[in-house]
Write a structure and sequence with these properties.
- The complex is a heterodimer of chains A (about 110) and B (about 120).
- By secondary structure, chain A is an all-beta fold.
- Chain B is built from no helices and twelve strands.
- In chain B, the strands form three sheets. In chain B, strands 2, 5, 6, 10, 11 and 12 form a six-stranded mixed β-sheet that branches. Chain B has a four-stranded antiparallel β-sheet with strand order 3-9-8-7, with no helix packed on it. Chain B has a two-stranded antiparallel ribbon with strand order 1-4.
- Chain B is globular.
- Classes of the chains: A mainly beta (about 110), B mainly beta (about 120).
Chain lengths: ~110, ~120
């Protein structure tokens, strides 16, 4: 596609349920990032994928969060046993190579009730 | 670790006037980039302007320019001839080029409202 695509756009889930958020990066981009934006705040780095290398998971807030990137393209961020503090906008970004301009998707707004 | 601080949570400006958004950062690195991103209500982050730390000349992009003061670790954004479409959240961000991941560290944002 022309840009980074994220789905769903909005997700409401009950506390304790698992959710999966999807990111489809720009074709050919080797680097993919997940960020979290809590209400009224800046973005917080979660995880980074570069090609076939092991991901940098240093930003994941707990072991309930995990992500994978299949075939070097689409990525899925999974949150298990969701909590109310997980409510936020989850943004995905991709760049052609690490260190080059990052292009962002429109994010998934997750609301845990 | 790096930190980025935006001290102005909200600002407003009259259409056609000039406004400056402040950003300071803290780092011990020498090889880095600085960015300003715009986030309209659509939520998508849009790159406004980029500054490479080794360049002394301030970056400009049409109505947008920066005042990069490396010694003071300051990176302000000036928007000239403000337009209604400039209304958005603005985020200052830092990228350490020595870091393997080159992930971005963001400030808390400034909400800018352009008034007609």
């Amino acid at each position: 596609g022309a840009g980074v695509s994220q789905s769903p756009s909005n997700k409401v889930t009950e506390k304790g349920k698992d959710v999966e958020l999807r990111c489809d990066p720009i074709s050919g981009h080797t680097a993919l990032y997940w960020y979290r934006q809590s209400l009224g705040q800046g973005l917080e780095f979660l995880i980074y994928f570069q090609g076939n290398s092991a991901p940098d998971k240093s930003g994941l807030p707990s072991d309930r969060f995990s992500a994978e990137r299949t075939g070097g393209s689409v990525s899925t961020l999974t949150i298990q046993r969701t909590q109310q503090e997980d409510s936020a906008v989850y943004l995905c970004a991709s760049s052609k190579y690490r260190g080059t301009e990052a292009f962002f998707g429109q994010g998934t707004r997750l609301t845990v009730v | 670790a790096q930190t980025v601080t935006q001290s102005q949570p909200e600002m407003s400006v009259q259409e056609a006037e000039t406004v400056t958004l402040s950003c300071t950062y803290d780092t011990s690195e020498n090889n880095y980039y600085l960015f300003w991103y715009k986030q309209p209500p659509s939520r998508q982050m849009i790159l406004v302007i980029r500054q490479e730390a080794y360049k002394q000349q301030n970056a400009t992009e049409n109505r947008f320019s920066v005042n990069f003061q490396k010694a003071a670790k300051s990176f302000s954004l000036k928007i000239s001839d403000s337009q209604l479409g400039d209304t958005a959240m603005y985020f200052c961000a830092f990228m350490n080029r020595n870091n393997a991941g080159n992930m971005l560290t963001f400030g808390g944002g400034t909400r800018l409202m352009v008034k007609p």
